[in-house]
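Predict fold of N-acetylmuramic acid 6-phosphate etherase; 311 aa.
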Amino acid sequence: MTTSPHPHELRAELETLTTEAFRSELAEIDRLPTLEIAKIMNGEDATVPAAVAERLPQIAAAIDGIAERMARGGRLVYAGAGTAGRLGILDASECPPTFNTQPSQVVGLIAGGPGAMVTSVEGAEDSRELAAQDLDALGLTDRDTVVGVSASGRTPYAVGAVEYARTCGALTVGLSCNADSPLAAGADHGIEVVVGAELLTGSTRLKAGTAQKLVLNMISTITMIRLGKTYGNLMVDVRASNDKLRARSHRIVALATGAADEEIERALTATDSEVKNAILAILGGVDGPSAARLLAESGGYLRTALGKAAG
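Predicted 3D structure, encoded as tokens:
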């Protein structure tokens, strides 16, 4: 079982973390006018993209590894506690409607389970074993990737997730906001976005959370681009599950093909509203079943399928 550190040891450890540092110049921020506080906070937020930019080579290398494994049927799994866990679940939950992935392809795990999305689950983040149990339930393989997310880079749940994933042969990524973190050190790809001390001491849902959100955006979006889920910068695998998305689907086909509205509607009807298929039907001059077949033969890559249709 995991042995919890002594409170004195934990306090000493927190004092070494930049994300926990106290900023004396902000000690009387509560006495400032609201607009002044907002300006300070906005200025703090503006520093985050630069911190992310310093880690782009590491982010890109991780994405290439993730995409290669997902192309072979692997899954992308985020694991974290608190804000980090919630951000992972948010990113995972947005992949099915955006990229038409199955819910099992991109998964978010949070220490304490789904209930921890809205209510703190005492002690869950302190357990390496809990992370191992959650991942074991997924039946990890060497085609999968586990991204441990933790602002401190020391959260036992995130570190334990990476440790367990490596025993399964899965690719591992450690995303933290402190340098020299155990999480990054224990992963195949360590990504340490050092954003510095927070506006509110230790409130890592602020700059650290923003940095994590930006990196997770990159991981999922660029991975899906690599997997052929887009055509240029168009979301051609979008799932038309409501009126807004149906209108967006029509617009995407129009942008990709330049076809008239009536032709677009005919193509969408013939392809069961699959945007990628409809584009192929119009640009490749094929019917719905042929579009589906060509895409299947091309691994879902629209550009490849268009080449086959032209050939």
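The mean pLDDT is 93.
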